[in-house]
Amino acid sequence: MRGKVVAVCVSESKGTPKTDVGEGVLLPGLGIDGDAHAGFAHRQVSMLAVEDIETMKEKLPDLVPGSFAENITVEGFDLSSLSVGDRVRVGEALLELSQIGKECHTRCAVYHKTGDCIMPKKGLFFKVLEGGRVAAGDPVDRV
């Protein structure tokens, strides 16, 4: 199963949509250099499929990668087939799936902008085992 990176997104604060910066550096045990969520325990990097964003565009046509505060948006990679503990090579980095979905205790800026949030069901969270550069167009492979 091979997919590709569509976007690499960061934000300066938590709970807000992220901006696609095209590429970034993943730091082992931390996350994406310069992102507000870097160093956040086992949820160092978040990932979402562009296909899920496209489904939500039926409600809000202006959605783009990063709208749901995901760090890495992928295409053509079946994220739903992964289980906690599975490893994924994204660009130069090696990630380990640490959590599927999340509980949202409050309605963050993402929810208020989109009217819904798919991260609680569709978002995946990873630990960075091996760092490296990741950029749009890079391959995504299960290892």
Model description:
- This protein has 3 helices and 11 strands; from the N terminus they run βββββαβββααβββ.
- The chain is globular.
- The model has no long low-confidence stretch (mean pLDDT 88).
- It is mostly beta strands.
**Strand count, sense and closure of the main sheet?**
7 strands, mixed, barrel
Distance between the termini: 10 Å
Mean pLDDT: 88
Structural class: mainly beta
Overall tally of domains: 1
Beta-strand fraction estimate? 35-45%
> In sequence order, what are the helices and strands, one letter per element?
EEEEEHEEEHHEEE
CATH fold call: M1 Pyruvate Kinase, Domain 3
Query: What is the CATH C-level name?
Result: Mainly Beta
The number of distinct helices, counting runs of at least 4 residues, comes to 3
Q: If classified by CATH, what would the architecture be?
A: Beta Barrel
Could you tell me the number of beta strands? 11
State the low-pLDDT regions, or none: none
What Rg do the Cα atoms give? 13 Å
CATH superfamily: PK beta-barrel domain-like
